[in-house]
Write a structure and sequence with these properties.
The complex is a heterodimer of chains A (124) and B (108).
Chain A (H helix, E strand, L loop, with lengths): L2 E5 L2 E3 L5 E8 L8 E6 L5 E7 L6 E3 L7 E6 L4 E6 L8 E7 L14 E2 L3 E5 L2
Parallel strand pairs in A: 2-11
Antiparallel strand pairs in A: 1-3, 3-8, 4-5, 4-9, 5-6, 7-8, 9-10, 9-11
Chain B lengths: L3 E4 L2 E4 L5 E7 L7 E6 L6 E5 L3 E2 L7 E6 L2 E6 L9 E6 L12 E5 L1
Parallel strand pairs in B: 2-10
Antiparallel strand pairs in B: 1-3, 3-8, 4-5, 4-9, 5-6, 7-8, 9-10
The chains are: A mainly beta (124), B mainly beta (108).
Amino acid sequence: EVQLVESGGGVVRPGGSLRLSCAASGFTFDDYGMSWVRQAPGKGLEWVSGINWNGGSTGYADSVKGRFTISRDNAKNSLYLQMNSLRAEDTALYYCARGNYCSSTSCYTPIDYWGQGTLVTVSS
Amino acid sequence: EIVMTQSPATLSVSPGERATLSCRASQSVSSNLAWYQQKPGQAPRLLIYGASTRATGIPARFSGSGSGTEFTLTISSLQSEDFAVYYCQQYNNWPPGTFGQGTRLEIK
């Protein structure tokens, strides 16, 4: 069974930093591209960042470019999101998701599995 | 960046009736279009990918169609568990993998 379990969310002041983690299990992690998707309270889905299967290619939404860094450790089956210079508008539930960046076989992959999310609140 | 526009924002339909949801891309995304369902307090769930292929375990009453810039999700006979928010997402030109703003399907 595919499982994605996020951790690392919390309350942080504007300008602060957080590092989100996602532990993956139930599939061959290094075959898949991975993404982070967020959802502000009462709002829709926003793709935040993605990384390809071997970590050699990454991408970011304009809203987080230069502040967030995605990475992965295939030996630990883990995905990360380092978030710096946080703003109030970054407050959201952050989902770890499988897909949306190149897998080992395709660069056109939907998100087929989602974690339950970790909540990030940026407030003074 | 490709903009995805969903319509209507809210759709009111009676159980047993058909629901048709639309998604339009600002430029062609070929058939690299997915539909997701999200219920309150839950993570989204993949329904359709490749514009028309049902994901594993998705009932046959869900169908997708379209290519290029115009896409449709049809639910043929609404069940009580189908009332939720539906999002489309293109994954043809990224980053980013842009989502539509969502259509809320509510009971009439």
